[in-house]
Amino acid sequence: MSAPSAKDLIDSLRQVYHGREEFFLHEPIVGVSEEAFISSCLKEGWISSASAWGRKFENAICSFTSSKHSIVTVNGTSALHCALLAVGINPGDEVIVPAISFIATANAVSYTGATPHFVDSEDITLGIDPIKLDKYLSQETLPHKDGVLNKKTNKIIKALILVHTFGHPAQIDEIFKICEKYKLIFIEDAAESLGSFYKNKHTGCFSRVSILSFNGNKIVTTGGGGAVLTQDQLLADQIRHLSTTAKVAHPWEYSHDQIGFNYRMPGINAAMGCAQMQKLNEFILKKRELARMVMSALKNHSAVKLITEPQNTRSNYWLITVKLNTNSLEERNSILKILHDEKIYARPIWNLIPNLPMYKNCPRMNLDTALDLEKKVVNLPSSAFLVE
Ligand SMILES: *Cc1c(COP(=O)(O)O)cnc(C)c1O
Q1: Is 183 in contact with 148 (CB distance < 8 Å)?
Q2: How many Å lie between the centroid of ligand 1 and the Cα of residue 139?
Q3: Which of 10, 14, 263, 370 has a CA 20 to 30 Å removed from the CA of 162?
Q4: What pTM was estimated for this model as a whole?
Q5: Taking a C-beta distance cutoff of 8 angstroms, is the pair 256, 246 a contact?
Q6: CA 40 to each of CA 33, 132, 262: distance values in angstroms, whole numbers, following the listed order
Q7: What is the reported pLDDT for 1?
Q8: How far apart are CA 358 and CA 154, in angstroms?
Q9: How close is the Cα of 226 to the center of ligand 1, in Å?
Q10: Using a 6 Å cutoff on CB, does residue 121 contact ligand 1?
């Protein structure tokens, strides 16, 4: 994009981003109800994870998502770590992870001693490309009782983590079928998609186990926090056990039957989460309106396209994501620079995980689409309060 057309882009975006000094990528909305709930948690004296606020927050999550079980944790990464352990991911296993995701998805796999195996994404949903994956697995793997055997590494690919990127649901049905076909444990990383539905069912409720994040920049925040969702009672019990110190229930004795992780969310954070959950529907409406405003502002810019919710889904539009018509990182960066100079702090998509030093030797398929998206995808400031 040439400098004059970048100027033109700024002028259009100013229809949405005006009336403030600075526009950060995503700021939380916190008000009197958060203060009131936290303050009553403090007054009750039960402020640790033993507080009743943890169970209240879990109930609010279950009631919003219709998930049977939810276990709240200190962050989304720890939720994913527990989830992977509970479904039986062991050292030496491989787990399919999209090259396009936040680093936490791959890190949680690494914590278990397993290796992430990176796969490509598709253009429209920014989620794992099911057609490419099916073809790849049929060529590169052999059947195995616990998944498939990677012919190159001789390791077992045991599970797949599907990420709903920037809040937009991926092709869940198609990926589910592939998991059935190759006996892969299906896991959803729904950290970004609280409030996003696929065929009228909440994301995160399609898989054996899934996770949410309540980090400061997510649609609902507890400062830091996460949750595991599952529809399976035994798995829920196991995850809850692992997320504590794996203490055997007893009125006074300290006895533990596993190595637990002490990942439970403190009551203070859960109290904040309860207040935030009451506002979730309002947040979603505002974000969807913001997306509409950006789309309308960009309608005359053929070089910039808003990523919209895929068919059969209702997205939370956690981030307002656009695709620039460019094939160079330099050009992408020069547009980011112009936006930053205007104090519109847009951010690029993540650097691809498999290119980072810790992951550069991990198995991967051809990642052409991810590499292309890396040069094009930018997130615009997306705070819900921009819509008033
Ligand atoms: C935010 C996020 C997580 C979890 O992050 P935490 O900061 O640990 O809560 C995991 N996966 C994705 C895709 C995320 O965006």
Answers
A1: yes
A2: 32
A3: 263
A4: 0.97
A5: yes
A6: 11, 52, 24
A7: 59
A8: 21
A9: 8
A10: no
What whole-number distance in Å separates Cα of residue 137 and Cα of residue 96?
11
**How confident is residue 47, by pLDDT bands cut at 50, 70 and 90?**
confident
| pLDDT, mean of residues 242-252 | 94
Which two tokens mark 37?
Answer: 């709930």
How confident is the model at residue 45, as a pLDDT? 86
Band the pLDDT of 33: cuts 50, 70, 90: very high
Atom of ligand 1 nearest to the CA of 226: 9
Report how far residue 54's alpha carbon sits from residue 329's, in angstroms, rounded to the nearest whole number. Answer: 44
Ligand 1 pocket residue status of 76, Cβ below 6 Å:
yes
> Number of C-alpha atoms within 13 angstroms, CB side, residue 174?
14
Strand spans (E) along 67-107: 69-73, 94-98
Q: Which conformational region is residue 328 in: left (phi greater than 0), alpha (psi within -120 to 50 degrees), or beta?
A: beta
Mind listing the pLDDT tens digit for each residue in 250-268? Answer: 999 999 999 999 999 999 9
Please say if the pLDDT value at position 229 is more than 70: yes
